[in-house]
Design brief:
15% strand, Butyryl-CoA Dehydrogenase, subunit A, domain 3, alpha+beta, two-stranded antiparallel sheet, TIGR02234 family membrane protein, 5 strands, three-stranded antiparallel sheet, 2 domains
């Protein structure tokens, strides 16, 4: 069954909106999660006991770094075309997948708590007890999943999405009016030059679309 071109265009636009939303939200979730507490415990050593915590960035800086890479790739998707867009979309998807893996690996990490305990107590021979982990690593993994979804959508529909530079590529376009055909960027006498306000008003008077 042949698919209606208008249906394909609508699906592409929906995919574009979802990809932008997923990519931006995913990067934000990962970056926010990195600043939250991932692990808690009690440091014991030298006859003293103190509570210690470890943030996501202390556990691993990889999710945040990959979120920034993914966010940059999300923007770069619209700056390139063809094979370049496929490559950038792949980077976006891989950034999401990597963020998921790093977050899951850090969900049960205790090394960051041990480092924090040694720093707080001021001695190397310290034990960490009553260790518990929060749900923030899983939120970070969810953000990575959103980035992955944005990358997969870009891979599936990216070739149909517009590029940021397309609206500025006017050199080869011709404008037709009552006085004949001229190249975009040329004045009425055929001389190349920028669009001046008076040119725009004259085009409107002739019934042309100056854009």
């Amino acid at each position: 069954m042949t698919r209606n071109p208008s249906d394909s265009a609508r699906a592409s636009r929906r995919a574009l909106g979802v990809a932008l939303l997923c990519g931006a939200a995913g990067a934000a979730v990962v970056l926010i999660s990195a600043g939250q507490t991932w692990g808690e415990g009690d440091a014991q050593g030298g006859g003293a006991e103190l509570p210690v915590t470890a943030s996501g960035s202390a556990v691993s800086g990889l999710p945040s770094a990959l979120a920034l890479v993914g966010l940059a790739a999300l923007v770069a998707v619209f700056a390139v075309r063809g094979t370049g867009r496929v490559v950038v979309a792949s980077v976006l998807a891989l950034s999401g997948a990597g963020a998921i893996g790093a977050a899951l690996l850090g969900s049960g990490d205790t090394e960051a708590l041990e480092r924090a305990a040694a720093e707080v107590m001021g001695i190397s021979d310290v034990a960490v007890t009553s260790v518990s982990h929060t749900g923030w690593p899983w939120f970070s993994a969810l953000g990575g999943l959103l980035l992955l979804c944005a990358g997969l959508l870009a891979l599936s529909y990216g070739r149909q999405w517009p590029a940021m530079s397309s609206r500025y590529e006017r050199g080869g376009r011709e404008v037709r009016g009552r006085r004949g055909t001229r190249r975009a960027g040329e004045d009425e006498d055929g001389d190349p030059g920028p669009d001046r306000p008076e040119d725009i008003w004259r085009a409107l008077d002739r019934g042309e679309d100056p854009t």
